Amino acid sequence: MAEKGVSLSVDDYVDEIVAKKGRHVYKEGLSEKDWEREIQDVPLFMTEFPDDGAEVSDAISALQALKLEDETADGRATCFKEEGNDYFKKKQYRQAIIAYTEGLKEKVEDAQLRVVLLSNRAATQYRLGNNRSAFSDCQRAVVLNPQHLKAFVKGAEASNAMGHNKVTVEWCDNVLRIDPGNKNILEMRQSADKAFRLEERNRRKEAREEQKKQAEEKKLEEAIRSRSIVLATDEKVRRRFAENEGDDDDRDRVMADLAALEQSVPQGSRVQLDADGVLHWPVLFVYPEHHQTDFIQAFDERARFRDHINVMFGERAPWDESHQYTPSSVSIYYEDTGSGRLVRVKSDETLQAVLSNPRFVVRSGTPVVVILVHGSEFEREFLAHYP
Q1: Helix (H, G, I), strand (E, B), or coil: what is residue 227?
Q2: Residue 17: its pLDDT value, please?
Q3: Phi, psi of 299 (to 5 degrees)
Q4: How confident is the model at residue 246 (pLDDT cuts 50, 70, 90)?
Q5: Tens digits of per-residue pLDDT, 186-229?
Q6: How far apart are CA 287 and CA 319, in angstroms?
Q7: For the whole model, what pTM was predicted?
Q8: Residue 111's closest CA among 63, 77, 158?
Q9: Is 137 exposed, middle or buried (0-12, 13-18, 19+ CB in 10 A)?
Q10: Rounded to an integer, what distance in angstroms lies between the CA atom of residue 299 and that of residue 284?
Q11: CA dihedral defined by 299, 302, 308, 309, rounded to 10 degrees?
């Protein structure tokens, strides 16, 4: 009877527990539908590492921390190296870099282990196209071990990928010092050396051309200075010249602004100095009455204005319907930058004589003259704006 009483009280207890729980479902277990996937989160049943960047369960995180807890710095670095190697084999390169980097953070005593971590990370960076980072790791690795073949090979490959031909040759030489029969490196060195020699030849050619250009620029500047011609794009320079008009000393101090000659002009022309020391200027003729222009690409400084006027108006210009513009009917002017007035040019004056006048300032590398019909109503009105 006692046993039955005990049995009844246990049964009653169980029934009471069940009654209290009601329909409670155990939520921490595996679901019937996704149990095969969910079991991969259980460390005991894992068949592969989590994917790159995937979240991991608390159990896995705890085991990872536990794995390294009692290791030495060298031991932890070795674990990170092996982890990185596993990621590398699976082509999970970013995770591999993280693992190798964690290993390099450890204060390892084994220098060769640090060399391996560096060269492995370099190989991984190279796979991702991070050639600069790969080369940097190789540099650090060979400092620690000047005989580490893998670091020299990856350094040569990374340098070659960046197009640094001279450096590539040097790193290939280091590889061949250790592995003379490396066919791939021999071919890489030959190609890089050929490219480097071509670069050097082009560099020497460019240097010669630059020296020649500078010498020509100097001659051009001296020719302009010797004729007392002032070039200016800056209003302050023009104003300073105007204020010192007639003073030769001040005039000499006005720099010939060769940069002005690089300004855009029709056909990209600029003043040229020929082999005989003669200047040829791009000159713009402006016809304000008809909003027209003529551009002379190379006006010989020795030529007279009438030489060009005779050619331009020997026949009626298409826009001159009334045929007012003839060699004998036109007047030539330029603007006095200092006073703002128009100065008349005699048709038999040479371009050099006009440009050497203290009142003429060449702007944007191109002398400009204004052409009007002498005695016309438009000329009177136009000149009225230049008192």
Answers
A1: coil
A2: 61
A3: -90, 110
A4: very low
A5: 999 999 999 999 999 999 999 999 999 999 999 999 999 999 99
A6: 10
A7: 0.54
A8: 77
A9: buried
A10: 10
A11: 130
